[in-house]
Write a structure and sequence with these properties.
With about 180 residues, the protein is mainly alpha-helical. The protein is built from eight helices and four strands, in the order ααββααββαααα. This is Sugar transferase.
């Protein structure tokens, strides 16, 4: 199902991909795609794709990058990660090394899941960057508050994994991404 939906989305959104690629390349330099190593299923690293939002020279968010992050459109290239089999539509959001790969005990169960484009934790913390910017010590807050809560939510997802749960999360994500449909 993930592959089929991702393929359909890539086909339908292809003009949007091209436009955003041109805009991000113009705004941040060529290529407009950002690649980063993240931790995937079974703690194996993989390369995640996003539209570049930070100018490589100034290391500040670009004009278009601010909008892409606010709308989460910078995440669209992850549809290609789904097509490659690195990710699923729904699952724990992938993180950089030093987090999920360091889990112990029952918490490691989240590593049995493919990372996802969306999740309950991703929805709850969709404004994570803004939340962290208000903290005196953002790294400490992430390590002691946000990340443990995300792990808890991802474990809950693992234990209640079902097609119905995935549909619920996808509909919730869609209603947030497209407020005009925000009746869910």
């Amino acid at each position: 199902m993930d592959y089929s939906i991702a393929l359909l989305a890539v086909i339908l959104l292809f003009p949007v991909f091209i436009l955003l690629l041109i805009l991000t390349s113009w705004d941040t330099g060529f290529p407009g795609i950002f690649k980063q190593e993240r931790i995937g299923r079974h703690a194996k690293p993989f390369t995640i794709y996003k539209f570049r939002t930070i100018h490589p020279i100034t290391t500040r968010k670009s004009f278009i990058g601010k909008w892409l992050r606010k709308t989460k459109l910078d995440e669209l290239p992850q549809l290609f990660n789904i097509l490659k089999g690195d990710m699923a539509l729904v699952g724990p959001r992938p993180d950089v090394a030093g987090y999920y790969d360091q889990l112990n005990g029952e918490d490691r169960l989240v590593l049995l899941l493919k990372p996802g484009l969306t999740s309950e934790a991703g929805i709850k913390y969709r404004n994570e960057e803004e939340l962290l910017s208000r903290q005196e010590n953002p790294l400490q807050y992430n390590d002691e508050v946000l990340f443990p809560d995300k792990v808890r939510m991802n474990l809950e997802y693992y234990h209640n994994l079902s097609f119905k749960t995935d549909i619920h999360i996808l509909l919730k994500t869609f209603s947030i991404a497209c407020p005009v449909f925000n009746r869910y």
